[in-house]
Amino acid sequence: MSTYAKDFVLNLLIVFSPLVFYPYLHKAHSKKALFNAFLFGTLALSLAATMCFPIQVDFLHFDMRSIPLAIGALYGGWTVTLPLYATVLLVRHFLGSPNEWLYAFSFLPSFVVCLLAHLRFQSSNLWGRIGLAMVLCTLIKLLTMSLYLISIGQFERIFNDSLLVYLQQMVSAGIYVYMIETFIKYNRIQEEIVRSEKLKIVGDMAASVAHEIRNPLTSVRGFLQLLNSVELEPAKRAYYTGICVEELNRAERIIADYLSLAKPEPDCSERINLNEELVYVANVLQTYATYNNVDIQLTLWKEQEELLAIGDRHKFRQALINIGKNAIEAMEGGGTLALRSDRRAGRGVVLVADSGKGMGSEQIKRLGTPYYSMKDKGTGLGTMVSFNIIKKMNGKIEIDSVEGQGTEFRLSFPPVGN
């Protein structure tokens, strides 16, 4: 009995071994020819192996060839079943089995049964497929052995195989199909999750684009309202018009940046005067700050030596405006937005500080990560893009915040040589 158990376990491992390659098999599922070739290859190996190492019960030998045959027929159709049947005959020939032609003729009727089972299998549910596999596995063995033994005049030997042998192969075939169907279901769920994630990313990207474009459009709307003022001086009117045009150009560049994500272009590197950029950003944010009852305090580095950084001027403005706009929105009841330039330890520094609700340490750690936002309808992508822009300029971002008191962003940049 111990020998039987050992042989039985070995044959189970051999027959179920193709399941190890199922992930690769699933990837080829959309290509029918490749799928069938892969399915035949794995099943043919297990089929040949189980025939070479049969199970011994007393003086009888039997193997589990009917399981790979049934699985190949149900999942591959005739293009897999036919070469599997040829494999059985070929292996029997090399093993020196008797009555090859008689066995071949006895074997053919089960081939027809396999084709009929394949047609029914396609429209069956899970339990129908399991039951069909169990029945087909039994019919292949029973039909073939009955016809073969009748042809050699030894039909009484059909009763030598115990009922346990048929039950074991039936159950094994059912478990085999159940495992395959479970893998198929799992992979479909995975594909649905991936598809949903892609749709979510597209939606978040669209929200991020809308968020980035809304900033310059809000500025343009504010300055257009100011341009309607009759008492506006010609010099200021020209200045405000220039800002409107510049902001519209920035909106166009933002759209171009997002459209070129699939084929990114090298960033423009130029010397940026931090004082000039802070003045520009303060003017752009002025109307939005006024609308939200926020005062802007601008303090510039007064020394003769300029504060410089290297990077893309327009993207740097985009980052500062995004940080400044978020700071204004953090002051729900109004407050003060401080913009300051400074030099510390030889590095040019830009400080953006608000008197808003502030953040906790855990919130600060997650700031700038995808899809994390302090706002109810925010995506967090705008802040992430801003942080990436600063980091591409070799800048360093430091954040100090106290809940209920406000937040300060310190953006520092390495010194720029003459």
Question: Which features does this protein show?
Answer:
alpha+beta; 9 strands; rod-shaped; 418 residues; 2 domains; Heat Shock Protein 90; Arp2/3 complex 21 kDa subunit ARPC3; five-stranded mixed β-sheet
Description:
With 418 residues, this protein is of the alpha+beta class. It has two domains: 2-195, Orthogonal Bundle (Arp2/3 complex 21 kDa subunit ARPC3), CATH 1.10.1760; 270-413, Heat Shock Protein 90 (2-Layer Sandwich). Helices cover 63% and strands 13% of the residues. It is built from 13 helices and nine strands. The chain has helices at 2-16, 22-27, 32-52, 66-76, 78-95, 100-122, 126-151, 163-227, 234-259, 274-291, 313-330, 361-366, 381-392, and strands at residues 55-57, 60-62, 270-273, 294-299, 308-311, 335-344, 347-354, 396-402, 406-413. The strands form three sheets. It has a five-stranded mixed beta sheet with strand order 4-6-7-9-8. The chain has a two-stranded antiparallel sheet with strand order 1-2. A hairpin with a 2-residue loop joins strand 1 and strand 2. The radius of gyration is 37 Å and the shape is rod-shaped. The model has no long low-confidence stretch (mean pLDDT 82).
